[in-house]
Amino acid sequence: MKINNVIPFFTAFLLILMGCTQDEVIKEDTSVGGKEKISVTVTQGGAITRISHEDDGANGLILKWTANDAFKLYGTTTEVFTTAGPTDGDGKIATFTGNAVEDALHAFFPASKAEKRWEDCHFNVIGQVIDANAPFAHLSGYNFMTAQTTASGTEISEISFKHKIAVLKFEVTLPDGIVPKYITLSTQDDAGIAISQKASDESNITTAKQLTAAISGVSSEKFTAYMAILPSTLKEKLALAVTGDDGMVYSYTVSFNGDFPYEAGKVYNSELTFGGIEGGYGTAAIFDNNVIGNTWDQSDNKGSTKDNPYLIESAGHLKYLIEQVEAGERYLDKFFKLTTDIKVTADTWTPIGISSTKPFRGNFDGGGHTISGALKGSFSNDLQNFGFFGYLTTTSSMLIENIHIAANITWSFAYPEGTIITHFGVGGVIGNGPTQEITVHNCTMSGEMKISDGNSNYGNLCIGGIIGHSGAHIQNCSSIGKSDVSCKGSSLWIGGIIGRDGFLSSEYKHCINTSSIILSNPERSNTIYAVSVGGIGGYIAGKVLGCCNQGSITGHSISPVDVGGITGYSEWAKYHLNRNLTTDFNVTSEETVKLGYLIGRINSATIYSCNESVGEQSQWLGSNPAWTPTTDDESAH
Q1: Model confidence over 537-586: pLDDT tens digits?
Q2: Among 12, 137, 309, 538, which residue has the fewest nearby CB atoms (within 10 Å)?
Q3: Where is this region: Disordered (predicted)?
């Protein structure tokens, strides 16, 4: 990847400077709810602020205010200010209207991602989906800005917003006939890429080894992609991988002389042209029907610590790991690290860990690399859980991190006789990990899942973009693919991140789902539960902190169905600072449908400071909750 040039958002301006003089505050005589309503004319001093994006090739991205843009103003009270659109032809000037705020200090844009308290506001750039027909549109949800201001009653003296993101512009050219589907930026730097920051002091909440954006609607091997990133300093060994519709990963490694800072308010241009190995590119290692297992380097006490792991450097190494676990080697407390992208073309996939009697019990660092191609399997007596990992368990602790699954997953359940209530799991990363000792960190799923067949009297079926069934602690994971579920079982739990988690001690922090879930006549026989579907989880009993859903849930269910933007069915869970940003839930059933923009069906759960609405914040739940977040809980946001 070659950094060609750097272009600010608008000509030579880096930041948004929005000046409001005393004359620009228009007072009205009307009052709303006992508060005086005011209109503020916001004039931009050269730079343009909002996310009607245009790219003229010379000036970078030109940003304009659009109708219904809104920011949230924080003071003794908080209010949302909204515009009806620009007041002049170039979009530089707009009037924002809202109720007066006493002692205002801070403003946050966009209001749709603002929290109840200023201290909880944060920026998060995972879960991006780029539409080839509108390549700038997704940036509107990530064009974070903040401002410091002073106000007394209706007299706003000054507002000066500043950008908090940068934009990477990639001009992609793949081999003839290959259409790009995903772009993944990754780094081997221990500090990682900043994916979440506090608005109050811009400190990093979380870093990751990779940041992935999905691309939809592309019809050519040439495409220009825009990716929002948070300002940070990246070090050497930065890599960019483009996954094509052929399942191949085309990757390029960039080296810097020293540190390379990405600054807010700038667009960084990079031209990517596939040229083979001699051009500096590498392609994924092929895992096909004929791959032969080869042992990895086991000298110098390798595998004993995170800093000295076994290195999985080829498809043969991965094959050997699968074979060893299938033969009964569990690798308890051992450490592995993937150092290459892998494309799976084999007719069937045997996951790492196939059953409760032959599980994987080690630690695995994906190194920011991508598993692409297709993972295909079907239910058998030996293989009942499916994903890149099938079955995980441990007696101490386990860390699965930094792995990106761009492979399509096809799984069919069987039709065994009799009745059984065991939980079976299918997930992009992990099928089943029925323990509270697993941490899943910085993992993404962008492939498509198609789950079918089964016996309505056999098994609780758990299907998730990241994990099917587990009591894991899941942090900073995202799903940006699609799941089509037509299976039947005793119970069905379907989620963008997790299918089912019944462990009270589990935690979900800063996970984002933009994947779509499609119900294709699923059916369950257990009349205690409905088919449960949620943007984050089908069923969750632990803590859900700072998660966000932007994905749709559509289709038809034969059985009753509970649908929630965050969780389909919640029992004993605790929710804090979660939000759902879509109303795209079009689900029908031959029986009943329970729909909640936050939770479909709730039982003894506590919701604290979660936004259940979409867009304008109309209601907050949990004003006097049985559970109040501890200092530790709040400091995570």
Answers
A1: 999 999 999 899 999 999 999 999 999 999 999 998 999 889 888 889 99
A2: 12
A3: 618-637
User: Do the domain assignments include residue 140?
Assistant: yes
Please name the residues in contact with 159: beta carbons below 8 A apart, sequence gap of 6 or more: 18, 19, 20, 40, 42, 107, 147, 149
Whether residue 576 lies inside any domain: the answer is yes
pLDDT, tens digit, for every residue of 332-390?
Answer: 999 999 999 999 999 999 999 999 999 999 999 998 899 999 999 999 989 999 999 99
Sign of CA pseudo-dihedral 78, 83, 84, 87: positive
Two tokens, residue 52? 């009607």
- SS3 assignment, position 120: helix
Sign of the torsion angle spanned by Cα atoms 410, 415, 418, 419: positive
- Other residues' Cβ atoms within 10 Å of the Cβ of residue 140: 18
Smallest CA-to-CA distance from 268 within 254, 281, 250, 282 is with 254
> Does 468 share its domain with 323?
yes
Residue type, 75: G
Q: Is the pTM of this model over 0.90?
A: no
Q: List, in sequence order, the alpha helices (H) in 305-453.
A: 315-326
Q: How far apart are CA 129 and CA 226, in angstroms?
A: 10
Helices H / strands E in the chain, number of each: 2, 68
The 3-state secondary structure of 278-325 reads HHCEEECEEECCCCCCCCCCCCCCCCCECCECEEECCHHHHHHHHHHH
**pLDDT score for 104:** 87
Q: How many domains does the structure of the chain reveal?
A: 2
Residue 210: predicted pLDDT: 85
Nearest to 287 by CA among 245, 265, 250, 320: 320
CATH of the domain at 368: 2.160.20.110
Of all residues in the chain, what percent carry a pLDDT higher than 90? 49
Dist CA 141 CA 118 (whole Å):
18
Q: What is the largest CA-CA distance in the chain?
A: 80
User: Regarding beta strands 335-338 and 281-283, do their DSSP bridges make them parallel or antiparallel, or are they unpaired?
Assistant: unpaired
Distance CA 86, CA 517 (A): 36
Question: What pairs with residue 460 in β-bridges?
Answer: 423, 491
CA atoms within 13 A on the CB side of 69: 25
Mean pLDDT taken over the chain: 82
pLDDT at res. 630: 45
Cα distance between residue 265 and residue 191, in whole Å: 22
Which residue is associated with the tokens 């995903």?
A: 182
249 within a domain of the structure (yes/no): no
Domain range for 111 is 37-123+135-163
DSSP 3-state assignment of 406? coil
* CA atoms of 388 and 443, how far apart (whole Å): 12
What CA dihedral angle connects 304, 307, 312 and 318, to 10 degrees? 50
Q: Give 223: exposed, middle or buried? Use CB within 10 Å, 0-12, 13-18, 19+.
A: buried
Helix (H, G, I), strand (E, B) or coil at 631: helix
55 in Cβ contact with 108 (< 8 Å): no
Is the pLDDT at 466 greater than 60, yes or no? yes
β-bridge pairing 249-254 and 128-131: unpaired
Question: Which residue has tokens 């390379």?
Answer: 260
Alpha-carbon span 516 to 587, nearest angstrom: 12
Let me know whether 155 and 289 are in one domain. Answer: no
Residue 503 lies in a domain: yes
Q: How far apart are CA 263 and CA 414, in angstroms?
A: 53
